[in-house]
Amino acid sequence: MTSSAELVAQVRQTAAGSPYVVTDQPYGFDLTIDIVDATWVTLLRVNHIDRVYTYQVRLDEPRQRMTITDVANTVEWNAGLGAAPTLRAHKSVQKGRVYEFSSHQELGLDAETGEVGKVVDYTFTAGEGRDLIRGAARDAGWSEAMGREQKIGLYVGLGVLGALVVVGLVVAAVFIIR
User: Fold this and answer.
1) pLDDT tens for each residue of 140-149
2) Domain count, the chain
3) 84 and 153 share a domain?
4) Are residues 129 and 159 in the same domain?
5) Shortest CA distance to 2 belongs to which of 133, 143, 146?
6) What confidence tens digit (pLDDT) does each residue in 48-92 have?
7) Residues of the domain holding 76
8) Other CB atoms within 10 A of residue 23 CB
9) Which ranges constitute the DSSP H helices of the chain?
10) Distance, CA of 151 to CA of 143 (rounded, Å)
11) Which of 74, 91, 93, 97 is closest to 148 using CA atoms?
12) Hey, CA dihedral for 19, 24, 28, 30, is it positive or negative?
């Protein structure tokens, strides 16, 4: 049986060398892009990345289960016009299970070689952080359950589907009666 601390250590080890950092939380841990590291901030700005993902992982140690909630933060980058540049962030949030794929490629002239080639080649999927966590958890013997936001989304979706079926049956009955 693997403890929560051992699982968090495994995720930290798996995330080493990636743009992700693990932050301990009372409920478990968060995995997010390390925006404090200048390397990753530069990558975000140069590639015009305006969404930063945090994966909130809640741990249930007795049952060896976890839930992963995606938190997609939209960030607006602005350079100031004054004497010192400033960074202003505007934030909006999506929470639950987020599926996103983005790719950014630019061609340009390489300053050193003078050859035309890709100067920006960036691909991101929102699931890569989840996959990192799931792989470490699987190796540690943990399983995944649906989080609160996913359950609410599923219930709302089923409720809307049920309402549409009822409306469809009522409309069909009205046309049949006429």
Assistant:
1) 899 988 877 7
2) 2
3) no
4) no
5) 143
6) 566 677 889 999 999 999 999 888 776 655 555 544 434 445 555
7) 4-145
8) 12
9) 4-15, 38-46, 127-140, 148-177
10) 17
11) 97
12) negative
